[in-house]
Protein backbone atom coordinates (compact mmCIF):
# COMPACT_ATOMS: atom_id res chain seq x y z
CA UNK A 1 0.00 0.00 0.00
CA UNK A 2 2.96 2.33 0.60
CA UNK A 3 3.89 1.74 -3.03
CA UNK A 4 0.38 2.74 -4.15
CA UNK A 5 0.70 6.06 -2.32
CA UNK A 6 4.05 6.75 -3.97
CA UNK A 7 2.60 5.70 -7.34
CA UNK A 8 -0.33 8.09 -6.87
CA UNK A 9 2.07 10.93 -6.08
CA UNK A 10 4.28 10.07 -9.07
CA UNK A 11 1.33 9.87 -11.42
CA UNK A 12 0.02 13.24 -10.27
CA UNK A 13 3.50 14.74 -10.64
CA UNK A 14 3.90 13.44 -14.20
CA UNK A 15 0.43 14.64 -15.23
CA UNK A 16 1.08 18.01 -13.58
CA UNK A 17 4.36 18.41 -15.44
CA UNK A 18 2.67 17.51 -18.74
CA UNK A 19 -0.08 20.05 -18.07
CA UNK A 20 2.50 22.70 -17.15
CA UNK A 21 4.54 22.07 -20.31
CA UNK A 22 1.38 22.10 -22.44
CA UNK A 23 0.20 25.37 -20.88
CA UNK A 24 3.65 26.87 -21.47
CA UNK A 25 3.49 25.94 -25.14
CA UNK A 26 -0.05 27.28 -25.49
CA UNK A 27 1.09 30.58 -23.97
CA UNK A 28 4.23 30.60 -26.15
CA UNK A 29 6.47 30.54 -23.09
CA UNK A 30 9.57 28.40 -23.09
CA UNK A 31 8.95 27.11 -19.56
CA UNK A 32 6.78 24.84 -17.47
CA UNK A 33 3.87 26.98 -16.30
CA UNK A 34 2.39 25.71 -13.05
CA UNK A 35 3.40 22.06 -13.32
CA UNK A 36 3.98 21.63 -9.59
CA UNK A 37 0.73 23.43 -8.80
CA UNK A 38 -1.19 21.20 -11.19
CA UNK A 39 0.42 18.16 -9.60
CA UNK A 40 -0.63 19.25 -6.12
CA UNK A 41 -4.20 19.95 -7.24
CA UNK A 42 -4.39 16.56 -8.95
CA UNK A 43 -3.07 14.88 -5.81
CA UNK A 44 -5.65 16.62 -3.63
CA UNK A 45 -8.53 15.72 -5.97
CA UNK A 46 -7.39 12.13 -6.48
CA UNK A 47 -6.89 11.59 -2.75
CA UNK A 48 -10.33 13.05 -2.04
CA UNK A 49 -11.90 10.84 -4.73
CA UNK A 50 -10.19 7.72 -3.37
CA UNK A 51 -11.36 8.57 0.15
CA UNK A 52 -14.96 8.87 -1.06
CA UNK A 53 -14.62 5.51 -2.84
CA UNK A 54 -13.25 3.93 0.37
CA UNK A 55 -10.01 2.95 -1.39
CA UNK A 56 -7.64 5.34 0.38
CA UNK A 57 -6.11 3.81 3.47
CA UNK A 58 -3.47 4.92 6.01
CA UNK A 59 -0.70 2.97 4.26
CA UNK A 60 -1.29 4.90 1.05
CA UNK A 61 -1.23 8.11 3.02
CA UNK A 62 2.13 7.20 4.53
CA UNK A 63 3.54 6.76 1.01
CA UNK A 64 2.38 10.24 0.07
CA UNK A 65 3.53 11.79 3.34
CA UNK A 66 6.99 10.24 3.03
CA UNK A 67 7.67 12.01 -0.24
CA UNK A 68 5.86 15.20 0.69
CA UNK A 69 8.23 15.63 3.62
CA UNK A 70 11.29 15.17 1.41
CA UNK A 71 10.49 15.88 -2.20
CA UNK A 72 7.77 18.47 -2.59
CA UNK A 73 9.53 21.23 -0.59
CA UNK A 74 12.63 20.77 -2.74
CA UNK A 75 10.61 21.02 -5.98
CA UNK A 76 8.71 24.07 -4.76
CA UNK A 77 11.96 25.79 -3.77
CA UNK A 78 13.55 24.97 -7.12
CA UNK A 79 10.59 26.28 -9.09
CA UNK A 80 10.41 29.42 -6.94
CA UNK A 81 14.06 30.22 -7.68
CA UNK A 82 13.51 29.58 -11.38
CA UNK A 83 10.43 31.79 -11.46
CA UNK A 84 12.25 34.66 -9.74
CA UNK A 85 15.14 34.44 -12.21
CA UNK A 86 12.76 34.46 -15.18
CA UNK A 87 10.72 37.32 -13.71
CA UNK A 88 13.80 39.46 -13.09
CA UNK A 89 15.17 38.84 -16.57
CA UNK A 90 11.79 39.32 -18.30
CA UNK A 91 11.20 42.88 -17.19
CA UNK A 92 8.76 44.92 -15.17
CA UNK A 93 5.54 43.27 -16.37
CA UNK A 94 6.62 39.82 -15.21
CA UNK A 95 7.78 41.24 -11.88
CA UNK A 96 4.48 43.06 -11.37
CA UNK A 97 2.57 39.88 -12.25
CA UNK A 98 4.22 38.26 -9.25
CA UNK A 99 4.19 41.20 -6.84
CA UNK A 100 0.59 42.38 -7.33
CA UNK A 101 -1.10 39.06 -6.37
CA UNK A 102 1.12 38.80 -3.28
CA UNK A 103 0.20 42.33 -2.18
CA UNK A 104 -3.49 41.63 -2.77
CA UNK A 105 -3.32 38.39 -0.75
CA UNK A 106 -1.50 40.08 2.13
CA UNK A 107 -4.02 42.93 2.16
CA UNK A 108 -6.92 40.42 2.34
CA UNK A 109 -5.58 38.63 5.42
CA UNK A 110 -7.41 40.92 7.92
CA UNK A 111 -10.70 40.47 6.02
CA UNK A 112 -10.35 36.67 5.91
CA UNK A 113 -9.40 36.62 9.59
CA UNK A 114 -12.46 38.69 10.49
CA UNK A 115 -14.75 36.46 8.43
CA UNK A 116 -13.28 33.36 10.07
CA UNK A 117 -13.86 34.79 13.56
CA UNK A 118 -17.48 35.62 12.68
CA UNK A 119 -18.08 32.08 11.39
CA UNK A 120 -16.64 30.51 14.54
CA UNK A 121 -18.95 32.45 16.82
From TrEMBL:
Domain of life: Bacteria
GO CC, alphabetical: membrane
Transmembrane regions listed in the UniProt entry: 30-50, 70-87, 93-112
First and last residue of the signal peptide: none
Protein keywords: Membrane, Transmembrane, Transmembrane helix
Name this polypeptide is given: Malonate transporter MadL subunit
Organism name: Arcicella aurantiaca
Amino acid sequence: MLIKGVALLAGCYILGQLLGETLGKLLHVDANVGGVGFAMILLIFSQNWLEKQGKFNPEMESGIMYWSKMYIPVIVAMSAVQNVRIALSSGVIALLAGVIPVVICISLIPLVSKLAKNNLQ
